Automatic annotation (TrEMBL):
Entry keyword Transmembrane helix: yes
TM regions (residue ranges): 7-31, 43-65
Keywords: Membrane, Transmembrane, Transmembrane helix
Keyword Membrane set for record: yes
Protein name: PTS beta-glucoside transporter subunit EIIBCA
């Protein structure tokens, strides 16, 4: 889902010709690298690209769903099954 969101956001910022003026690490705090006096809409395009990437990644994760292995684990952990594995007369003691 992250790759899908990055791809769609990357298409947008490529089409609008977004320019970065400082080489910094990626992150929300480094959005100031897109501020320019000559290109007043550059920062706005960066924020829109961020929002598009976030929204598409969220939607893709929602559509793709959760991991099926988790559902199988939840079905296996029914009440009584764990007690049979441990034994009826055994007690689990935690060292903490």
């Amino acid at each position: 889902s992250v790759m899908i969101g990055s791809f769609i956001g990357g298409i947008f910022i490529g089409l609008v010709g977004l320019q970065a003026f400082v080489l910094v690490g990626p992150g929300l705090a480094s959005m100031s690298m897109f501020i320019s006096d000559e290109l007043p809409r550059n920062f706005m395009f960066a924020v829109i690209g961020f929002a598009i990437s976030f929204a598409v990644a969220f939607a893709a994760a929602f559509i793709l769903g959760k991991d099926r292995k988790t559902e199988e684990t939840e079905k296996e952990a029914e009440p009584g099954v764990f007690a049979e594995k441990l034994g009826a007369d055994e007690t689990f003691k935690s060292p903490v």
